[in-house]
Design a protein that fits this description.
The chain is of the alpha+beta class and 370 residues long. The chain has 2 domains: 37-49 and 60-159 and 172-221 and 245-309, no CATH class; 315-370, Wnt (Wingless and Int-1), C-terminal domain (Endo-n-acetylneuraminidase fold). It has helices at residues 2-21, 26-34, 69-77, 79-99, 118-121, 125-148, 177-188, 200-219, 246-258, 325-328; strands spanning 168-170, 222-228, 236-242, 261-268, 271-276, 290-291, 301-302, 307-308, 314-315, 334-350, 354-369. The strands form 4 sheets. A 3-stranded mixed β-sheet has the order 1-3-2, with no helix packed on it. A 3-stranded mixed β-sheet has the order 5-4-6. The chain has a 3-stranded antiparallel β-sheet with strand order 9-11-10. Helix 4 packs across helix 9 and helix 6 (125-148) packs across helix 8 (200-219). The radius of gyration is 25 Å and the shape is globular. It is found in: Secreted, Extracellular space, Extracellular matrix. One of its GO terms (cellular component) is extracellular space. GO terms for molecular function: cytokine activity; frizzled binding. The chain crosses the membrane at residues 21-45.
Length: 370
């Protein structure tokens, strides 16, 4: 027993000495540096949590996948919040897939949570989008949960201080954006503040993109109104501040993904900062997504790079956009197939007040990439 202990201790000393002397290979050091780069979005694994899983005791937090220790502590002290966070993970995943369904990268990478491949580990524009959407999504879901009464720790958002225009009055139940941002950022940013969560450049990138997501969420807060009056005259409108749907926020972030800025981590004054690689005469803008490494083209399957490829993906023969057969299939060509579609047809309106329809079947030609 003593001999085994001495051998292990000697092995640790040798390991430490080799690392100190720089005798390890570059690939090994690279692997060490990359470990944990995606800690900040590992919580998306919560989307796989069974609906029947009980979350009414602190020890239940250990059953949740993808959490780092600081998030586990938040879980134990905010048990009532966890079902909302699980719902947020599901919403982010669903929204990401829908937003990128017409592009080569269709957000399939997040299916691997909590273990990601290189396309999200290396600080690409895809990881920039996922971090931004995740930060916006968790705050959005919490803010809405306050409004619907699903969270005992919060209620409706505050009534605006300004006086509304004549014919308008404040009322209803506003989305509690302040509480959503407070608890959302506390949970989603916690992993990036762990010492072992990757390189400083990656931490800065992820924190910046997460904040971009929250800034876009803030900008989506708008006035929503309900009409009141005799015979629908709408003489008075009751209004409140509500957030846009997450899918609209995702579309805004998608535009920023397409125009994202490549950055480098270099000294600026007394400390290192992220600055645009090609035009580093200006600082990074608060609402622009940034990335450190170029993405794979996602044309061919390459598990090492995290590319699922586009073989068998559906494409649009008549489109000129990213879903076109030329772009989606990367010039490899495509195969046609016939698909049966069942639709509502021959609809009739009946007084008062319902519609009846028949079901019609038609055959359409579709195309998939070779």
């Amino acid at each position: 027993m003593i001999l085994i202990f001495i051998q292990r201790l000697f092995g640790v000393l040798i390991l430490g000495r080799k690392m100190k002397l720089g005798l390890f290979s570059t690939s090994f050091l690279s692997l060490v540096l990359q470990t944990g780069m995606c800690f900040g979005i590992r919580w998306l694994a919560l989307s796989k949590t069974p609906s029947a899983l009980a979350l009414n005791q602190t020890q239940h937090c250990k059953q949740l996948e993808g959490l780092v220790s600081s998030q586990m502590q938040l879980c134990r002290s905010n048990l009532e919040l966890m079902q909302t966070i699980i719902q947020a993970a599901r919403e982010v995943k669903k929204t990401c897939h829908k937003t990128f369904s017409d592009m080569r990268w269709n957000c399939s990478s997040i299916e691997l949570a909590p273990n990601f491949q290189q396309d999200l580990e290396r600080g690409t524009r895809e990881s920039a989008f996922v971090y931004a959407l995740s930060a916006a999504g968790i705050s959005h879901t919490i803010a809405r949960a306050c409004t619907t009464g699903d969270l005992p720790g919060c209620s409706c958002g505050p009534i605006p201080g300004e006086t509304p225009e004549p014919g308008y009055r404040w009322g209803g139940c506003a989305d509690n954006l302040n509480y959503g941002l407070l608890m959302g950022s506390k949970f989603s940013d916690a992993p990036m503040k762990v010492k072992k969560s990757g390189s400083q450049a990656n931490k800065l990138m992820h924190l910046h993109n997460s904040e971009v997501g929250r800034q876009i969420l803030k900008a989506s807060l708008e006035m929503k109104c309900k009409c009141h009056g005799v015979s629908g005259s709408c003489s008075i409108r009751t209004c409140w501040r509500g957030l846009q749907e997450l899918r609209d926020i995702a579309l805004d972030l998608k535009i920023r993904y397409l125009t994202a800025t490549k950055v480098v981590h270099r000294p600026m004054g007394t400390r290192k900062q992220l600055v645009p690689k090609d035009i580093d005469i200006r600082p990074v803008q608060e609402t622009e997504l940034v990335y450190l490494q170029s993405s794979p083209d996602y044309c061919m399957k390459n598990e090492k790079l995290g590319s699922p490829g586009t073989q068998d993906r559906q494409c649009n023969k008549t489109s000129n956009g990213s879903d076109s057969c030329d772009l989606m299939c990367c010039g490899r060509g495509y195969n046609p197939y016939m698909d049966k579609v069942v639709e509502r047809c021959h609809c009739k309106y009946h007084w008062c007040c319902y519609v009846t329809c028949k079901k019609c079947e038609r055959t359409v030609e579709r195309y998939v990439c070779k």
